[in-house]
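Field log, afternoon session.

UNIT: design team B
ACTIVITY: writing a sequence onto a fixed backbone
BACKBONE:
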């Protein structure tokens, strides 16, 4: 079953664009701040993980690189990366850096 592509299926282009442009001028890297703020705003508004499940351009880019373009070794994610202590520790670190 091949579903029709929607506008948000191409948000990986925006992630790739701000990543590349950020190397040439640091002001473009500020666009990445939107990719961190929008999920927080959506979660606070009660949209739960709607951004991550549908609109996340970084996730789309990594799925494209590892899946369609076969730039991944295809190994499973290490168990310690899935553990609760790592996830909550990384969340605390991420929020501390975000607030900094």
């Amino acid at each position: 079953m091949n579903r029709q592509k929607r506008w948000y299926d191409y948000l990986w282009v925006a992630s790739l664009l701000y990543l590349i442009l950020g190397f040439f001028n640091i002001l473009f890297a500020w666009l990445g701040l939107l990719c961190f703020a929008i999920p927080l705003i959506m979660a606070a508004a009660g949209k739960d993980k709607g951004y991550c499940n549908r609109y996340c351009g970084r996730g789309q880019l990594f799925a494209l690189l590892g899946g369609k373009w076969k730039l991944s070794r295809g190994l499973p994610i290490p168990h310690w990366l899935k553990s609760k202590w790592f996830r909550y520790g990384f969340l605390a670190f991420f929020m501390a850096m975000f607030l900094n």
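LOG NOTE: Helices lie at 12-24, 26-29, 32-44, 50-55, 57-68, 79-82, 84-99.
NEXT ACTIVITY: expression trials, pending approval
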